[in-house]
């Protein structure tokens, strides 16, 4: 949806894929070299993290910034709110701007903890690298074969189910490019 709405980034990501893969299926080295596509996926998961919160349980009574958190209490960490906080991401926090990841995740915001689509710490997603590889394979194959734009029928309505998903699907106009 974000690539359909941002044709400039779609063209850029496609050009990169075609240059790196030529007529071949992507292999591990090619995926590693897809810098633009990586930035696009990172920015997509910043704006629409599939998992909207992670939970941590206090193992003992603790105080945090004057708030008492009793032992046993669950704390929900709201990932989309952290990832769109203008204090951390700047005034364009709500906009799609993959360029913010040009220097990697560390340089993308004012705090290294501000980006957490895969959670954080000891229980961070065990499949995060596999998930990134899957995403790059799927999106690069789509980009190499098709160009796409949003249909006027598209109605933006992200919805929280088990994960964040488009509430009314994503209607696209699709054209073959090769
Ligand atoms: C875009 C895709 C994915 C997203 C956004 C995602 C996100 C997450 C998040 C937010 C957590 C909780 C981390 C925390 O509590 O700090 C998690 C945990 C986990 N994920 Fe993923 N995940 C994805 C794909 C996958 C895949 C493909 C696998 C397996 C092949 C996987 C396996 C796991 C496992 C095993 C855990 C539990 C880790 C633990 O508690 O030690 N995930 N994931």
TrEMBL record:
<dbReference type="InterPro" id="IPR036396">
    <property type="entry name" value="Cyt_P450_sf"/>
</dbReference>
<dbReference type="Pfam" id="PF00067">
    <property type="entry name" value="p450"/>
</dbReference>
<keyword id="KW-0349">Heme</keyword>
<keyword id="KW-0472">Membrane</keyword>
<dbReference type="InterPro" id="IPR050665">
    <property type="entry name" value="Cytochrome_P450_Monooxygen"/>
</dbReference>
<keyword id="KW-0408">Iron</keyword>
<keyword id="KW-0812">Transmembrane</keyword>
<keyword id="KW-0503">Monooxygenase</keyword>
<comment type="similarity">
    <text>Belongs to the cytochrome P450 family.</text>
</comment>
<keyword id="KW-0560">Oxidoreductase</keyword>
<protein>
    <submittedName>
        <fullName>Uncharacterized protein</fullName>
    </submittedName>
</protein>
<dbReference type="InterPro" id="IPR017972">
    <property type="entry name" value="Cyt_P450_CS"/>
</dbReference>
<dbReference type="InterPro" id="IPR002403">
    <property type="entry name" value="Cyt_P450_E_grp-IV"/>
</dbReference>
<dbReference type="InterPro" id="IPR001128">
    <property type="entry name" value="Cyt_P450"/>
</dbReference>
<keyword id="KW-1133">Transmembrane helix</keyword>
<keyword id="KW-0479">Metal-binding</keyword>
């Amino acid at each position: 949806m974000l690539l359909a709405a941002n044709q400039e980034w779609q063209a850029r990501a496609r050009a990169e894929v075609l240059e790196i893969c030529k007529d071949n299926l992507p292999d591990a080295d090619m995926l590693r070299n897809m810098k633009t596509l990586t930035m696009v996926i990172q920015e997509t998961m910043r704006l629409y993290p599939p998992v909207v919160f992670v939970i941590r349980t206090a193992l003992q009574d603790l105080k945090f910034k004057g708030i008492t958190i009793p032992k046993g209490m669950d704390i929900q960490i709201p990932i989309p709110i952290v990832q769109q906080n203008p204090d951390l991401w700047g005034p364009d926090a709500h906009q799609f701007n993959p360029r913010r990841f040009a220097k990697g995740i560390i340089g993308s915001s004012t705090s290294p903890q501000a980006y957490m689509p895969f959670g954080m710490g000891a229980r961070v997603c065990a499949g995060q690298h596999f998930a990134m590889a899957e995403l790059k394979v799927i999106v690069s194959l789509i980009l190499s074969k098709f160009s796409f734009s949003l249909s006027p029928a598209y109605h933006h309505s992200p919805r929280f189910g088990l994960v964040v998903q488009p509430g009314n699907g994503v209607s696209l106009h699709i054209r073959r490019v090769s």
